[in-house]
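Quick check before the chapter quiz. The format below is the same one you will see on the exam, so make sure you can read both the input and the output lines.
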Amino acid sequence: MYGYGAKWTGTDIAENQIQQAKKLAAKNHMDIDFFVCKAEEVNFPDETFDVITACQCIWYPDHKITAPKFTRILKSGGKFLILYMGWLPFEDKIAGKSEEIILKYNPKWTGCGDIVHPVWVPDEYLEYFTLVSQEEFRVDVLFTREAWHGRMRACRGVGASMSSEELMKWDEEHWQMLMNDVPEKFHIKHYISIAELERKER
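Here is the expected output.
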């Protein structure tokens, strides 16, 4: 989103994610301020931002804290955008097979079987924001074998929840599937879901 000309600030709870973001920003000559902090601990003066985005993370914050905080640090007419992007395992053969292998080693994983649906807007935000629009659209995302393997390893069903032994077995079987069944570069069917909220006047 940097290419649209705005001044951006990035936050994340994970220090390693922020370190990687800093490296990517420097590599691409992007002037972005980054901070390691929880969403609940974001601290900026009143009416600092035109837009706040929550991408792939709306399930995690304490919305009773973030909803009033976000409206406070947004300018009049400011927007809060909730974004989610997911692969479609019932429509994409490779994504479906990848999920099968995850479930083989982690049958309790609840993040599987996604379909196109509106992104969740927690009720707490509706006290402070007006829901302007919601939209879902499809997109094909290009991957290499290594990139898709890394994407699967980073999902909650793998790296965050498997034992070291399970992870080793998953790693071997998933990589073997990619080497045997897919070309070096391929597309995975995804969808993107966006909710646009506007700050209510105080």
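If your answer matched, good. The helical segments are 15-27, 63-73, 93-105, 123-126, 145-154, 164-181.
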